[in-house]
Amino acid sequence: xxxxxxxxxxxxxxQNNGTDDTSPTFKAFEEGAETLSKEQNAILASxxxxxxxxxxxxxxRIENKTYGICRVTGKLIPKERLQAVPHATLxxxxxxxxx
Length: 99
Prior knowledge:
Layout: H1 2-12, H2 22-63, H3 79-84, H4 92-98
């Protein structure tokens, strides 16, 4: 709130060319950027964990000889789809039915 007040004051007072508001404001922006960076890193880590988990499940399906078979339709998933998404468990047809 203090930083917001300083920002508003600097906009209202056009004659104020000082740097009284620079340090606290910069600190607030820096802390916000750091928080955003941590959140983005957490999101990326979560996505990476999910991708690795999905690949491990794909390896299990290979061992069980069910890899490449759509779990909804029971049809073979096209090779092009498996090359694009190696951990796919649904054909494009089944994926579109979910939407």
